[in-house]
Amino acid sequence: MSIQFDPNKAIYAQIVDSFYQQICSAELAPGNKLPSVRETAQTLKVNPNTVSRAYQEMDREEVTFSKRGQGTFVTEDLARIRSLKEALAQKQLNELVKYMRKLGYTDETMIEALTKTVKEVRD
What we know:
- The chain has helices spanning 11-24, 37-44, 48-60, 78-102, 107-122; strands at residues 64-67, 71-74.
- A two-stranded antiparallel ribbon has the order 1-2.
- The protein has two domains: 11-76, Orthogonal Bundle (Arc Repressor Mutant, subunit A), CATH 1.10.10.10; 79-122.
- 62% of the residues lie in helices and 7% in strands.
- The protein is mainly alpha-helical.
């Protein structure tokens, strides 16, 4: 696990985002155990309290759950994972649309550009 930290966003939030991407892409499957707080902190070279806050946030959002003395695990609730995946995708789409509008794209030209890009990337 490696993260290129953005100085404009809280580190714990970037750790959460990284785990969410791994969960949504099935790199971390439902029921999988996450690395310990200490292990993640050492890997990312951040304070363990920062990682602990990230883990607490994921538990609060019910994307993970903790078992005392055993660790933190990815939720087995597939509907929750699907909802998270849709929310992450929608967030990215919203950012893309805002950016393209700033560049002067109309709705029609955005759709054309996206359709063209999807075809190019698929092939």
